[in-house]
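Here comes a specimen:
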Amino acid sequence: MTDERVSRRRFLGRGCRRAAGLGLLPLVGCAAGETGGGRLAAGAGSPFPRAGYPLLEVGGGHREIGLQIARAMGHEIGPFLDRSALFRGCLAFLRRNEGRRRVQEFAAAARARFPRFVAEVEGMAAGLGLPFLDLFAYQCKNEIRELGREAGCSTLVTWRPVRLGILGHNEDGSVDNAPAMFLLRVSPPSGVEFLTLAYPGLLPGNGPGFNSRGIVQTTNYIRPRRVARGIPRYLISRAVMEARSLEEAVALATTSPRAFPFHHNLCDLGPRGRCLSLETHPARWDMLEIAGKYLHTNHFLHPAMLGPGGKPVLDRPYQSSLTRYAVLRPRFGPEFEVTGRGSLLSLLSLHEGRPYSPCRHPRGKVRGITLGTAFFVRGERRMVLYEGNPCRGRRREVSL
């Protein structure tokens, strides 16, 4: 694919129309393989796009991928960055001598291990008319200021050998992201295509997604006690999206040196595919294979990542994560029967514990919101996404 060209191949089911512009494919009451539509995610006073998250297809070289994203979504990404206090904070950090040196160190570590993904940031910065280091600093927003403390993500998994395998994930973030989120399908030089829910101005991979090899990734933010020198976490989650196998996904997710912790939910959608919980930290990592029910929010849970008596020694659990875990854990017990996506959706839609409930809604100074709820089922090469809050979101299906 040549520079500045986005694939025009029809991606939606019959009955959906393309939008005018550079490869933007809206889903307005339509989903891949279906022409029905649920309730709109947007309503009176809703921060979500009334027509749903746009779907963008890009491909080619890595710099071209970043450039295409910026030119197709610049009308949303540019204003988002202009009003983003997080972006302004990253720029303020960058303008200090010590801050600039640290960002340059992060960029050097990323370029040494993943130069192709740094090229995507370069292309996106060029398309947005920003200096590279300004946009790269935003890729390091968690490392710079440990941002996102009020948001978080909740993941429920039922994965049994041969039998039912379902992963349900609430993707939580700041309400400021809601108007500018989009779905992104990428055809990179590796040949491993992937589809993900993407954040404005960030490399794809942090939101829930899967690839043409059937590898699923969803992530949970972990608040650290310290930030190390190494590769920023968004570069690592981007790399995982092109994994050809579950083993390769683990190898990429445990890349060293790393600057920040992360929790990766990694699954193989093959008929007998496995599902893994992978907790990573600059000092060490641990992996558990899921066989049965599993719950994770935004703090370390693996015994190997905890200190004596189960005390946190590597991370700093915060109120949102602890509250959601306390709400979901007793309900997702042995007596809870999982018969399909709807079973997990009922739990992920709970409002107990507001404003830190599993289904997040902004309240007062708490800006966290559930941006979407994604489901993946073993044996199905698709993502079922409830746009916005799962309690009232619109169901969409997207596939490769």
User: Anything to note?
Assistant: Confidence is low (pLDDT under 50) at residues 1-42.
